[in-house]
């Protein structure tokens, strides 16, 4: 029986995948990799059927190159500018986020092996890999997108892949007003906070637009402000003439030392910053950030995961207490109250993302006890 082109592509593709290291192929570069795969495909096809016409050979080679170096079912999704996030929950289930709403995509992978190959292709150009010995990876792609992958044995029902794309939704507060994420009044309040040099926490759940708002707000900063941006993985789309960026570095199997957010905060203090921007405060670096905010670095901003304004302050307090400094809670609470001037709370609704609350934080002294007082200065309509 004469094999069809699809059958030949499947056979040759499986031979390439079984006998070659996909990471090495992809790592050869965007120009060399296709030539390597094409040569391998022709060789394996020649072994299978040396009587194929030139047209069939070219069709099979093209199919194998696309399957080996392409992103398979994800190609069309990532080519769609409306897709801001792709979530793969195993080979058979793929979701995307469009305009702040989740929907199931009408695509799937052939099996878990196919999905793992695609994950390898995504990670290979940036020198990262994921496997059973190191089953979690969180990385930044060349275009600024974030990729997170978790594979078995941690991922019980099959490999998981999440890609948060670098999509320039808004560059300024005016852009967010046009998109309906905040009102003109909220935009004026945020611009006032920036120009007044207020220290601000941007709070909200996952994918509520914290990073986008942070970048849009700081676009209003004076052009001669030296802004030092610190991130786990660089993604803040901040356009500013005097912006410098530092990025954390994970430890590697080759022996490179882990450089964490605490290291970056301490380094930033020696870089003559006007504003220190922490992409997300989530651990012991909260103590170093708090010291920076209380020692003259006005106009600094950070994001934090929290369900509300007071919850954001409590989380910051808890992280400082967990840093192991030995500071009593009453002192930490006073420092938080004196360091943070405002909290901006974001939320996701059925219509998308929006600024829910902007609250001023002040120091309240009662019976010699110092604590914070939260006063809303903007609240979105219900």
Detail the topology: elements first, then pairings.
Elements: H1 5-19, H2 22-27, H3 32-48, H4 54-69, H5 74-79, E1 83-89, E2 94-98, E3 101-104, H6 112-123, E4 136-140, E5 146-150, E6 160-164, H7 173-179, H8 184-195, E7 200-204, H9 210-218, E8 227-231, E9 243-247, H10 261-268, E10 275-278, H11 285-293, E11 301-305, H12 309-321, H13 329-339, E12 342-349, E13 352-366, E14 369-379
Parallel strand pairs: 7-11, 7-12, 8-9, 8-10, 10-11
Antiparallel strand pairs: 1-2, 1-6, 2-3, 4-5, 5-6, 12-13, 13-14
Helix pairs in contact: 1-3, 1-4, 3-4, 7-8, 10-11, 11-12, 12-13
Provide an overview of this structure:
The protein has 382 residues and is an alpha/beta fold. The protein has 3 domains: 5-69; 74-164, Beta-Lactamase, CATH 3.30.450.370; 173-379, Rossmann fold (3-Layer(aba) Sandwich). It has 13 helices and 14 strands. The protein has helices at residues 5-19, 22-27, 32-48, 54-69, 74-79, 112-123, 173-179, 184-195, 210-218, 261-268, 285-293, 309-321, 329-339, and strands at 83-89, 94-98, 101-104, 136-140, 146-150, 160-164, 200-204, 227-231, 243-247, 275-278, 301-305, 342-349, 352-366, 369-379. It has an 8-stranded mixed β-sheet with strand order 9-8-10-11-7-12-13-14, sandwiched between helices. Strand 12 (342-349) and strand 13 (352-366) form a beta hairpin. Helix 1 crosses helix 4 (54-69), helix 11 (285-293) crosses helix 12 (309-321) and helix 12 (309-321) crosses helix 13 (329-339). The longest helix has 17 residues, at 32-48. The termini are far apart.
């Amino acid at each position: 029986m004469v094999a069809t082109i699809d059958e030949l592509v499947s056979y040759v593709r499986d031979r390439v995948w079984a006998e070659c290291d996909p990471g090495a192929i992809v790592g050869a570069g965007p120009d060399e990799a296709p030539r390597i795969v094409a040569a391998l495909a022709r060789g394996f096809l020649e072994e299978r059927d040396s009587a194929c016409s030139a047209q069939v050979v070219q069709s099979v080679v093209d199919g194998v190159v696309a399957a080996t170096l392409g992103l398979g079912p994800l190609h069309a999704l990532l080519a769609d500018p409306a897709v801001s996030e792709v979530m793969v929950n195993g080979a058979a289930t793929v979701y995307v986020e469009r305009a702040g709403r989740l929907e199931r995509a009408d695509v799937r992978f052939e099996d878990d092996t196919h999905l793992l190959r695609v994950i390898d292709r995504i990670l290979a150009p940036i020198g990262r890999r994921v496997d059973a010995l190191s089953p979690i990876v969180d990385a930044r792609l060349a275009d600024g997108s974030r990729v997170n992958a978790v594979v078995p044995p941690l991922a019980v029902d099959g490999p998981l892949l999440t890609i948060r794309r670098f999509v320039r939704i808004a560059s300024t507060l005016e852009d967010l007003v046009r998109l309906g994420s905040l009102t003109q009044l909220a935009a004026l309040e945020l611009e006032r906070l920036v120009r007044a040099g207020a220290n601000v926490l941007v709070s909200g759940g996952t994918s509520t637009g914290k990073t986008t708002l942070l970048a849009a707000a700081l676009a209003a900063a004076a052009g001669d402000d030296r802004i030092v941006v610190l991130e786990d993985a660089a993604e803040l789309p901040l356009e500013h003439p005097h912006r410098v960026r530092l990025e954390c570095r994970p430890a590697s199997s080759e022996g490179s030392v882990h450089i964490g957010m605490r290291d970056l905060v301490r380094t930033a203090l020696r870089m003559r910053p006007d504003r220190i921007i922490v992409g997300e405060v989530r651990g012991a670096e909260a103590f170093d950030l708090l010291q920076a905010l209380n020692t003259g670095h006005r106009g600094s901003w950070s994001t934090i995961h929290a369900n509300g304004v007071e919850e954001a302050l409590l989380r910051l307090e808890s992280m400082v207490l967990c840093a192991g400094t030995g500071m009593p809670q009453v002192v930490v609470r006073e420092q938080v109250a004196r360091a943070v001037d405002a909290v901006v709370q974001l939320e996701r609704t059925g219509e998308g993302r929006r600024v829910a609350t902007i609250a001023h934080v002040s120091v309240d002294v009662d019976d010699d006890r110092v604590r914070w007082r939260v006063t809303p200065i903007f609240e979105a309509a219900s």
